[in-house]
Amino acid sequence: YFLHILSEIGIIGGAFLFFVIFYSLVPKKKIYFYPVLGILLQNLIDYNLLIPMNSVLLFSSLGCLSKEKEFFVGNSSDFINWIKNFIIIFIFLYGINTSFYLSKVESYLKANDFLKAINKDKTCWYAWQGLAEEEFKKNNFKEAERYFLQVIKNNPLHAESYLYLSIINFKLKQKHLGYKYLKEAIKLNPKAANRYKRRIDEEMKDKK
Fold first, then answer.
1. Helix-, strand-, coil-residue percentages of the chain, each rounded to 5
2. pTM higher than the cut 0.90
3. What percent of the chain has pLDDT over 90?
4. At 17, is the secondary structure helix, strand, or coil?
5. How far is CA 48 from CA 11, 16, 62, 94, 168, in A?
């Protein structure tokens, strides 16, 4: 989860977010501290904070911890308190805007309107994949190849796209590229090697 956050908002943005969390964790009041610590540790290996209810729980607990440290008011100058409150409001509004934005993209995906999803978010590899598979089914291999290349550009670990690129290049009689992409697919998902080879054999038989 934390690597995901860093890839989305960058090192500076991630450092700021982690600073806010660390700042809030300093007062160790058990009733708030342990739940927050548990959530943070769990997300070292999981994505639970992507669930809105869990995020609300985490940041509500952080808010309680911050209140214990007089995050909003206290001995600091009015200017410092104003900056703190401004930052909190900015993060809150940014989160709302991001939520609406992602909901819109998700609605396009559910409707299989992949072009609109891409126009909204050009990094949405799932939408590129949908377009690519549609073109592949129509035997528009050049277009499908272009779209699958966009998939692996935005999600380099998507083994199925490498498989499709391998099949496309075998169909286009570019065997060296076909083997190259097949090798990448197997490297990413070695357990599926036999299935990938069978799929390519089936596709080439259909072509004949």
1. 80, 0, 20
2. no
3. 43
4. helix
5. 21, 21, 16, 20, 37
